[in-house]
Design a protein that fits this description.
This protein is an all-alpha fold. The protein has helices at residues 2-25, 41-46, 49-60, 64-101, 106-136, 140-150. The chain has a domain at 40-150: Four Helix Bundle (Hemerythrin (Met), subunit A), CATH 1.20.120. Helix 1 runs antiparallel to helix 4 (64-101), helix 1 runs parallel beside helix 5 (106-136) and helix 3 (49-60) crosses helix 4.
Length: 165
């Protein structure tokens, strides 16, 4: 009996760690302010998604046309991803409730974790498409600078907190 309880406790810890680790990987990519969420740390720090776009435009030297196209890309992405965020938030909550209940069996937890994982994969695909669209409107020099800013180490100038690789 003790062995089974230890195994259950270990499994619960592993599942919770996997779920919370995956959640923190996307923590900075929640809905923007005004869309039911608090937005990412960097957006809050700089005054929201529009301020982030202004900062990025300044750092990359975007033209007015590029700014307008980037704004359209990001606004369309936010609108398209809003239902996905709501589903992901709900499924994560359900997973946490199952894990915390202490009465859920392994297949139920695995099934719920699979739902969360599938939604996270969908979101990653959407973010990848949005990034490709954004990179397509940049000049090669701007694209190189954008990639360098995204990969800056912690604490370096231009590092974007909450947006780890």
């Amino acid at each position: 009996m003790k062995r089974q309880l230890r195994q259950l406790a270990l499994f619960t810890c592993i599942t919770a760690t996997a779920a919370l680790g995956a959640q923190s990987a996307f923590a900075g990519y929640g809905p923007a302010e005004g869309e039911g969420g608090k937005g990412c740390f960097e957006q809050q720090k700089h005054g929201g998604p529009r301020a982030m776009l202004r900062k990025m435009a300044r750092e990359l030297g975007l033209s007015e046309q590029q700014r307008n196209e980037a704004r359209a890309i990001f606004e369309a992405g936010r609108a398209k991803n809003a239902p996905l965020f709501a589903s992901l938030r709900h499924e994560r909550h359900e997973l946490q409730a199952l894990v915390r209940s202490g009465s859920a069996d392994e297949p139920a937890i695995r099934a719920q974790a699979a739902k969360v994982s599938a939604l996270q994969a969908d979101f990653a695909v959407q973010r990848g498409a949005q990034t490709r669209q954004f990179l397509a409107l940049l000049t090669p020099e701007q694209a190189a600078k954008f990639k360098a800013l995204r990969e800056a180490p912690h604490g370096a100038p231009g590092h974007r907190a909450g947006h780890d690789r």
